[in-house]
Design a protein that fits this description.
The complex is a heterodimer. By secondary structure, chain A is mainly α. In chain A, about 70% of the residues lie in helices and about 10% in strands. Chain A is built from 7 helices and 7 strands; from the N terminus they run βααβββααβββααα. In chain B, β1 and β2 form a beta hairpin. The model of chain B has no long low-confidence stretch (mean pLDDT about 80). Classes of the chains: A mainly alpha, B mainly alpha. Chains A and B meet through α1, α2, α3, α4 and α6 of A and α1, α2, α3, α4 and α5 of B.
Chain lengths: ~220, ~110
C-alpha cells in the first residue's frame, strides 16, 4: 500500500526544477531547525509530522485520481498508487508552519483574547495567506512542468490551474491550522498532544473531505468547475 | 463529471474507511482518557528577529520574502512574465499584512 520509489529518468524534469527543489529543501531545514530551537522536539513534531502524513494521503489521492502528475523528481512516496515527490510533502509542512505562524502573528495583534474565536480567525488568516502564495507558485509550477494538470479538466482556471485546487489549498491549511492550534492550546500533557496530533489527522481529514466535497459540488452545480 | 480527489476517495471508500475509523476511535480514546494539566497558558506570540545591517527582520517574513523572490526570478526567467507579475502582486499581501501589524504595534508603543 505504501512505498518509496527513486526516479532514474531526469530527462522529464521541468525547467528550473532543481532550483525549486533546492528552495523548498533550504526553507524546510531552516524552519525545522528554528522550530526545534524555539519550541523543542515535541512541538516540532506537532507542527510538521501531521501535515506530512495528511498530505501524503491527499496528494497521492490527487495523482491516483488522474488529475495531475509530478514528473522529474528524485524521491517519490506513494499510497494508492499515486506517486508524490517527497519534496512536495515537505513543502506542505513549510506552508503550514509558515502561514499558521504568520496568521497567528497578524491575528494576535488585532484580536488579543486567547479563545476558540481567535483560533478560527488565525486559521482563516493562515488559509488566506497561503492562498496568496499559491496564486504565484502553482501557475509557475504548471508552466515549467513541475506539476502537470490534465488538459481536459473543465471549469474556471487561473493560468491553467483549476480553481478547485486553490480552494483545496485554503481548506487544507485552514483545517490543519485549526487542529494544530486546538491541540497545542489544550491542557493535555506534551506526550498526549503529540499522539493526538497524529491520530486526529483522521478527524481533520474527514472534515477536509466533507468541506472540499461540499464546495466542489457547489462549484459543479454553478458550472464553475 | 471530472474525476476529482473527492470522487476518488468515494470510489475507494473501503480503503479509507478502516484507516479513518481507527484514527477517529483512537483520537476519541486519547481525548477522553487524557489527564489535563493545570498550566496557565498565556504565552504571547513573539517571533525572533534577525539583525541585518540597520534592519530588524522577523525570521518568518525573511523566509517568506526569500520564497517570493526565488519564485519571481523563476517566473521571469521562464518567460512567464505577466502571470508572475499578477501572482507576485497578490503574493505580496502577506508581507504587507505583517508589516502593517508591526507598524501598528510600534505606533501603540509610542503612544
Amino acid at each position: 500500500m505504501f512505498f518509496i520509489d527513486f526516479n532514474q529518468n531526469f530527462e522529464e524534469a521541468g525547467k528550473f526544477l532543481s532550483l525549486f527543489i533546492g528552495l523548498i529543501a533550504i526553507v524546510w531545514l531552516v524552519l525545522v531547525w528554528y522550530s526545534y530551537k524555539k519550541y523543542g522536539p515535541k512541538r516540532t513534531i506537532i507542527y510538521f509530522l501531521p501535515i506530512i502524513i495528511a498530505t501524503i494521503f491527499v496528494e497521492s489521492a490527487g495523482v491516483a485520481s488522474g488529475r495531475y502528475v509530478y514528473p522529474g523528481y528524485f524521491i517519490y512516496l506513494s499510497v494508492f498508487n499515486g506517486a508524490v515527490p517527497l519534496i512536495i510533502i515537505l513543502g506542505w509542512s513549510v506552508n503550514l508552519f509558515l502561514f499558521m505562524n504568520m496568521g497567528r502573528y497578524v491575528v494576535s495583534k488585532i484580536y488579543q483574547q486567547r479563545n476558540v474565536v481567535q483560533i478560527i480567525f488565525i486559521a482563516l488568516a493562515a488559509g488566506l495567506l497561503g492562498l496568496c502564495l499559491d496564486l504565484i507558485e502553482d501557475p509557475i509550477a504548471h508552466h515549467n512542468a513541475w506539476w502537470v494538470w490534465k488538459g481536459s479538466i473543465a471549469g474556471i482556471k487561473f493560468y491553467e490551474v483549476p480553481i478547485l485546487n486553490f480552494i483545496g489549498w485554503f481548506v487544507l491549511i485552514f483545517f490543519m491550522t485549526l487542529a494544530t492550534l486546538l491541540i497545542e492550546r489544550s491542557r493535555f500533557t506534551e506526550n498526549r498532544k503529540v499522539l493526538l496530533s497524529i491520530t486526529s489527522i483522521s478527524v481533520t481529514g474527514t472534515l477536509i473531505f466533507i468541506a472540499h466535497a461540499a464546495i466542489s459540488k457547489l462549484f459543479f452545480l454553478a458550472g464553475l468547475a | 463529471m471530472e474525476n476529482t480527489i473527492v470522487n476518488f476517495i468515494v470510489e475507494n471508500i473501503f480503503l479509507f474507511l478502516p484507516v479513518g475509523l481507527t484514527g477517529i476511535i483512537v483520537t476519541l480514546f486519547l481525548y477522553f482518557t487524557g489527564k489535563k494539566e493545570n498550566i496557565e497558558q498565556n504565552e504571547d506570540v513573539v517571533f525572533d528577529e534577525w539583525f541585518l545591517p540597520k534592519i530588524r527582520v522577523n525570521i518568518l517574513v525573511l523566509v517568506y520574502l526569500f520564497i517570493w523572490i526565488v519564485l519571481i526570478m523563476i517566473g521571469v526567467f521562464s518567460d512567464f512574465v505577466i502571470p508572475t507579475v499578477i501572482g507576485g502582486t497578490i503574493a505580496v499581501i502577506p508581507l504587507i499584512a505583517t508589516m502593517l501589524v508591526r507598524c501598528r504595534i510600534k505606533k501603540s508603543k509610542v503612544t
